Amino acid sequence: MRTPAVLSVLLLSCLCSPAQAQSAYRCSTPSGTVFQDRPCSSGASVQVHKAAPRSGSAPALPAEPAPLTPEQLEGLSPQQLQLLLLQQQNQQRNLERERLADQDGLSPEPPARPRAKTGQENMQEYLDARDRLSQERRAEQREALAAEGQRSDTSGALSRIDNRLRELRMRRDSLAATPKERSRASWQEERLVRLRPQVAAGIPGALEEAEAYLY
């Protein structure tokens, strides 16, 4: 067990002197918390307000207990000295917690965490995604059918144009046809020969124009 002399030295190093208790700045040093009448050299000083707080203002810092003189410490038992040392250490920890709490109060609040979705919301999202996928697939099928139908229409139109060209050539070369009929057949043949590549390429209006020469 520590002797009274050793405990007295420890208490004297931890407790504040009367001059420190009356100072206006609380500073943190490697050896502990000290009080002085000027700001700390490190710049991390906390001003102590001894006066009672006004209404609506921040509460004053807890006052430091009156220190014991060496003569008073010498008259204490080892158990009493150890108890005083523990009390002083607890007070130092409380002051440190208050300082950290003040710093935390100045820091911005962390962003709120997003609310977790319920099972019903997750199910609704799944159903909506499934409906969108089904609609996209149906739209793709309609486009494919339309393209297939257009290819089929184009193929049928080209077949009719080829048949009509054979008829017009036969009429143009027929000896039984009149000059007017041969001239008309030749003119229609020229138009269909010009329109056939346009119909095959799917150029708008080409098929409608070719329909006029198919009959």
List keywords for this structure.
215 residues; mainly alpha; three-stranded antiparallel β-sheet; 7 helices; rod-shaped; signal; DUF4124 domain-containing protein
Structure overview:
With 215 residues, this protein is mainly α. The chain has helices at 4-14, 18-21, 70-74, 78-106, 119-173, 179-201, 206-211; strands at residues 25-29, 32-36, 45-47. It folds into two domains: 4-105, no CATH class; 142-211. Residues 15-23 and 49-62 have low confidence and may be disordered. This is DUF4124 domain-containing protein.
Summary of the model, kept short:
With 215 residues, the protein is mostly helical. It folds into 2 domains: 102 residues, no CATH class; 70 residues. The protein is built from 7 helices and 3 strands; from the N terminus they run H-H-E-E-E-H-H-H-H-H.
List the helices and strands and how they pair.
Layout (H helix, E strand, L loop, with lengths): L3 H11 L3 H4 L3 E5 L2 E5 L8 E3 L22 H5 L3 H29 L12 H55 L5 H23 L4 H6 L4
Antiparallel strand pairs: 1-2, 1-3
Helix pairs in contact: 1-4, 5-6
What pattern of helices and strands is seen along the backbone?
HHEEEHHHHH
Shape: rod-shaped
How many distinct domains? 2
Rounded to an integer in angstroms, the radius of gyration calculated over CA atoms is 51 Å
Quickly give the structural class: mainly alpha
Q: Tell me the major beta sheet.
A: 3 strands, antiparallel
